Structures are given as C-alpha cells and as structure tokens.
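Standup notes
- DV: blocked on the single-chain target, sequence here:
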Amino acid sequence: MRWIAGIILALAMATPALAAEEYPPKETLEASIYRGEIVYYNYCVLCHGLTAEGNGRAAKMYNPKPANLVLSDKNDLYKEMIIRRGGEAMGRSKFMPPWGNELTDEQITDVIAYLASINKAQKK
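- DV (later): unblocked, structure below
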C-alpha cells in the first residue's frame, strides 16, 4: 500500500503545476470575458443557444424567440437591466427570467463582457 502512495506522490511531483501566468490576471478584461463565458454556458445557453443566436434547445417553446445576442444593438446598461430585472420588467419577453437574485454583480458584469466580445453588430 505504501508503494501506491509513493507512485502517486512521484506522479504529482513530475506533473508540472500550472504557472500563474497561464491564467489571465483576475482584474483584466480577458479574465472577465473568460468568466462571463462560463456564466453564459451555465445560465443562458438553454434559450439563447451555443452560438448566442437565440436558437437554444428551449427557444422553440417561446414566442417571441430569445434574442440573438450576437447581433444585439443594446448597450451594456440595458443588458445589465434586462439580466437583473428580466424581460417582462423591461417591456420584453416574459420568458426572460430576472437573474438579479441569482447572479452576483461580478457574474453579471462578466457575462456582459462576454456578450460584448462575441457581438458582431457593434464591431462594425
């Protein structure tokens, strides 16, 4: 049994640890986009889809369809308000849930950064 522990210890020491410089520093836009993508894939993808074009698996159940976030012309403040308050509170679809009590401020900021990074309408 001791030899198994020795092998595991040797393998752990032989595997190079990920250097801190391999991850973007926490307070950078790059890190925010990375975290925002994770938030998107955990909370938004079911309706807005893998490509954020409003074609998620659940999209066919809703009328109106979820927004195409890749072509959105909405500014960041509007996106923050609709994420926090939900679609109905913003005069949009009642099917867009309010995430203000579920997501942290950082998560909301991060998902908005991610959406800006994939937005084609505002990159022209």
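- Follow-up: The chain has a mean pLDDT of 88.
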